[in-house]
Amino acid sequence: MEMDxxxxxxxxxxxxxxxxxxxxxxxxxxxxxxxxxxxTCIIPTIGPPSKAMRTVLEALPTSIDRVFLxxxxxxxxxxxxxxxxxxxxxxxxxxxxxxxxKCLVSTIRLAAFVVDVIGCEALEVAxxxxxxxxxxxxxxxxxxxxxxxxxxxxxxVQGEFRELPEPLxxxxxxxxxxxxxxxxxxxxxxxxxxxxxxxxxxxxRLAEGIMVNTFMDLEGRTIKALDMPEYRNPPxxxxxxxxxxxxxxxxxxxxxxxxxxxxxxxGSVLFVSxxxxxxxxxxxxxxxxxxxxxxxxxxxxxxxxSGTSCLxxxxxxxxxxxxxxxxxxxxxxxxILSHSSTGGFLTHCGWNSTLESIASGIPLIxxxxxxxxxxxAVVLTEDLKVALRPKANEEGLIEREEIARxxxxxxxxxxxxxxxxxxxxxxxxxxxxxxxxxxxxxxLSELASKMASN
Length: 454
What we know:
By secondary structure, the protein is an alpha/beta fold. It has two domains: 9-240 and 436-452, 3-Layer(aba) Sandwich (Rossmann fold), CATH 3.40.50.2000; 248-431, 3-Layer(aba) Sandwich (Rossmann fold). It contains 15 helices and 14 strands. The strands form two sheets. It has a seven-stranded parallel sheet with strand order 3-2-1-4-5-6-7, sandwiched between helices. It has a seven-stranded mixed sheet with strand order 11-10-9-8-12-13-14, with helices on both faces. It is globular, with a radius of gyration of 22 Å. Keywords: Glycosyltransferase, Transferase.
């Protein structure tokens, strides 16, 4: 491992799973390319790295090293929920992480160690080696606020959050959120997922600073509330939006979607994607397909079934054209969203996708599936008002007519125009936050200076 002794050096623990890995990789690139850090990415592994992971890692600049920890071995690791699987993999990798720390601190001055929320157990390893720890929250400030308040809420709230008679409203939140819309682990307090989440967020205050992937014009009230002295939180650094970057010339258009978009009118296409982990039931997928057809809208989308991803396009009153791919979808969503032909985005409301849509100024149809996505959907639709949301029937199914209606509303109604205009305003605000004397640029500079002086 070749290291530049002149540059301050930081280590970042990359949580397994592409949805967790990409935001941390993008943070590493920002610190390496714009603030002159040398970065070592430490990667716990459950099995061989996926093609998507290899693609991301192989494209890293020379100032970012990578170290794979030995694969963990546990009989029940592959039978549990993916979130629990990732957390257990990190726990089982802690002895190997300590070995890497011994090697690093014996040869260089390690200025900082960064983890995400799922990796918070590793903060204690940094403390052991007297390395300054930081947390990068790749979700919203609303999620961070809930996380920091959770130890107190766990003590004071009686019964299940999903059964609360009144919605929850924490300091700085612009709107209250129903208990049933809080993130998945909070829906059943008897589960391992709830206890694991609680143990992780209790460690957040071990950090010397918490970075959050948002910006002041997006969630300023929540961020200011988190900085209030009475809560005794670590310093909060809103440094977003940090999203996946890279020249489109580095990507082969295997699906044909980008080429197809080139021939569509400006703002005429609805992009449909449920992210790297989102799947629908057969009945819901059928209703979605029929609803898309019924809307008469030009569609470019990504569907996922049985582990196979598929990009597809549909012209108005035309036939679907499908192109199966294997790992070629990485980075494609951002390219589609930034294309001038794209005018709307039907999304699961994952925070990575949300920030990509904001950066491109694309209004949303909110269709949350899991994790904290229901929280995001509430904020996007009821507070920021940059999204429309279809309503499910009594069985929880969103019917084709409702899907067609909300698509037409977003793409062609006066309400849709108002949503589009608000999203364009957010795009401008996001650009300002990261340039010149913008709020995120200032926070990044303060953070980098603090890290370099450790």
